[in-house]
Amino acid sequence: MRRLIIFVAFVLVGITGFAACTVNVNQNANQAANANRVNAVSQTTSSPIASAPVAKARWSVVVCSSRASAVTMSAGPSENDSQLFATYKDGAAQKAFDFPARVQNLSSVYFKTSGAETNPVELCVLFDGKPKKRVAFDEGSESHIINSSDDDDNDCRCTQ
What we know:
By secondary structure, the chain is α+β, with helices and mostly antiparallel strands. The chain folds into two domains: 2-51; 59-159, no CATH class. 29% of the residues lie in helices and 37% in strands. The strands form two sheets. Strands 4-1-6-7 form a four-stranded antiparallel beta sheet, with no helix packed on it. The chain has a four-stranded antiparallel beta sheet with strand order 3-2-5-8, with no helix packed on it. A hairpin with a 2-residue loop joins β6 and β7. It starts with a helix and ends in a 13-residue tail after the last strand.
């Protein structure tokens, strides 16, 4: 009889332990399934930050050709309020550069470019992808005020 009681107690403890183990396994599986559902929803539901489209630059510049080892470019609302935003190095793959974000919504910008030595440089300033100003020089630097309303500059040969 004593053995029977011990056996029954052993079986009950074993079943209870097994049931508890099963509940824990199912709880983890349910938690994982819920987490997967939440992740799936968060990937399909757009948040204001994640869904905000990246604004395409309105003002940009393309280096058409340069024999200078380096060409620096600055832009801003005015000559006294401009910033260096790009340096093109001879032979670099990147030839197109966006103006600084703070001038992208302006209708008029100041643009200055400088060559490292006295070699020919040719650039084209674009507004909404349309050529607004061809900038070419052989020595030193060149600066301009460029308006978005200016006629397209058909001399910009590298944007045609």
